[in-house]
Amino acid sequence: MRLFRYALPLTIACSAAVFAQEASDDPYIWLEEKDSPRALAWVEARNALSTKVLEADPRYQTLYDQALAIAAASDRIPTPSFLNRQIYNFWQDADHLRGIWRKTTADSYRTDNPQWQTVLDIDALGKAEGKSWVWKGAQCLQPEERLCLVALSEGGEDAVERREFDLATGRFVEGGFFLPKSQSSVAWEDKDHLLVATNWTGDDMTSSGYPYIVKRVTRGRPLSAAVEVYRGKTDDVGSFPAVLRDGQGRALTMIQRAIDFFHTETFVLTKDGVKRMAIPEKSSVEALVGGRAVVKLDEDWTAAGPKFKAGTVAALDLAALKRDPSKLAPRLVWSPGPRDALDGIGSTRDRLLLATLDNVRGRVWSLTPQADGGWSATRLALPDNLSVGIPAADDHSNRAFLSAAGFLSPNALYFADAAGSGAVEAVKQLPAKFDASNHVVRQFEATSSDGTKIPYFVVHRRDIALDGNTPTLMTAYGGFQVSNTPNYSGTTGKLWLERGGAFVLANIRGGGEFGPAWHEAGLGTKRQIIYDDFAAVAKDLIARKITSPRRLGIYGGSNGGLLVGVQMIQHPELYHAIAIQIPLLDMIRISKIARGASWQGEYGDVAKDPAVRAFWEKTSPYQNLERGAKYPEPFIFTTTRDDRTGPQHARKFAARMEEYGLPFLYYEHTEGGHGTGADLKQSARSNALTMTYFIRKLMD
């Protein structure tokens, strides 16, 4: 390995020199030292300045109280999961800020007052161990679903430690499986064996910060005795094991080598070692149903024939696949129409469940495998014109819970028998969290710079005057094939809509609302079209006199933070307020910060591709701030514990604004990971600070 590291190709060696030069030229490189005393002192000082302004506003406390009351309300729908023949739920409220993992029976869950039994109390665990534990989920061994690997994060980081937990005893297993803190991936092979990808020696991570060596860990033996089963490459994103099982107990053990964020080589683990599966790199095996492996395609499968286009779902015979993964005979399961997109996949014992979008309206289908290799489909009877999902499906039966919500329609939960007629039963309804009686939802289209029609939703009072004076918040994501669909936000409704504001959700390119092509349109150096789409929606809102630049604010997080950061640089004349949240902003040094190297499939590689570098040199927000320019005063928010995008982007952007004498507000939570906070109070504070900022800027 050491010889390989020193034998770098010339282009990479030169790139390293370029990065070193950039570091020496960057006066704020010291802020990339995330936990250094100097950097944390800088953060503390800027936090104090911002909270002095925002928390002194007489509306702040009311906004905080309302946000916390909504987040901690006892009448929220507890999100179910089928596990161990019961219903499990992770729950946070005012008495359990970090949360409890709890269970009840299926019959009790469907009542108005389920009788819950606490399985694991994260607040109590953290107090007992002196740790700031944050729940990151559990993986349980199928089909028994008794033994689980519980993932715990310090302060909300993506990196977790994993401990074996026994649902029968309600305790961690003494001497059981334990994986130290790391960016890791794990899958149960059987009761006594795990497939694990982790940082085995302290130096076994890719340049993206993920593991690339997969080993088999045996119960009762130390991690140092684990046996290697697969090794990827250090310049991959990472290697990740997975085991899928169907309702009849058949299993498919895989290792996915992520070359970049979207291109993956999938291997089947056999008694003779790993064998490459002959599916396209932009595809993934999502489920096993009735002895068939269900494959989601994000690119054309040309070898399979013309009907296997990007966006379709295909199936492979599992027995044939395991005999020879290089020779596959896929069958078509589902194909999208011109305005359709796949939005989610689930499975029960005998059925495949697909959530789809029809012009950004949700549908759920139950598909049955047929003896001839085909599939029959039944649409489940959920309300129309809403976002729908599959929060839980049972591997031991054909039961499933489905969800539906809209901007003005509170979340509802439905019970379905996936093997039935398509009828569903409403079992839980979230009470309204704000007064929506005088509001309407409208869908419009804006014309982007290349003539493409970009749909967007507007939520506003039905009696607004079209005079440009409605305070309006607009958001989008525009990346990674993530679909933004209508959702019910009690916080936005209570803190913003009830006060007379309007809300806009833009379905810009880069997302998945209209399938893989909608995403592909904005990859790499084509990304300017995403930013043009967003600006086109803003201009359309202004042209319709729904709002005006004085009353228009925008916000976005993560990739969405990059989106609104670019908008600030390119179109400061369109907006009066911008909240830049847990963002990416230094796109030249992105690969050197947190997990940034893993997203080169989305943004391109500035180190190796001159065209990519040229694009970001003129587009990256940090590099394109101008001294003396008239920008809206932004509210920049991040968290110290964010080990995904990292707080470094937000810090450096704010520091450069300060150098240039440009006004800004900055706040950094010391916890929270890649989100708004590590517990309900931290999240409520983030929401209240942000909404106070917007009210001051757009309503005053």
Describe this structure in words.
It is a single chain. The chain is an alpha+beta fold and 700 residues long. The protein has an eight-stranded mixed beta sheet, sandwiched between helices. Strands 5, 6, 7, 8 and 9 form a five-stranded antiparallel beta sheet that branches. The protein has a four-stranded antiparallel beta sheet with strand order 1-2-3-4. The chain contains 16 helices and 37 strands. Residues 1-18 have low confidence and may be disordered. Among the domains are: 2-67 and 437-699, 3-Layer(aba) Sandwich (Rossmann fold); 336-429.
The chain-level structural class is alpha+beta
| Unreliable spans | 1-18
Measured by DSSP, the beta-strand proportion falls in: 25-35%
Strand numbers in spatial order across the main sheet? 30-31-33-32-34-35-36-37
Gap between N and C termini: 61 Å
Characterize the quaternary organization of these chains: single chain
Please write the CATH class name of the domain at 2-67 and 437-699.
Alpha Beta
Q: Which value, in Å, is the CA radius of gyration?
A: 25 Å
**Mean pLDDT reading:** 95
Give the proportion of residues in helices.
Answer: 10-25%
Shape: globular
Output the CATH homologous superfamily of the domain at 2-67 and 437-699: Alpha/Beta hydrolase fold, catalytic domain
Total of helices: 16
CATH topology of the domain at 2-67 and 437-699: Rossmann fold
In CATH, the architecture of the domain at 2-67 and 437-699 is: 3-Layer(aba) Sandwich
State the major sheet: 8 strands, mixed
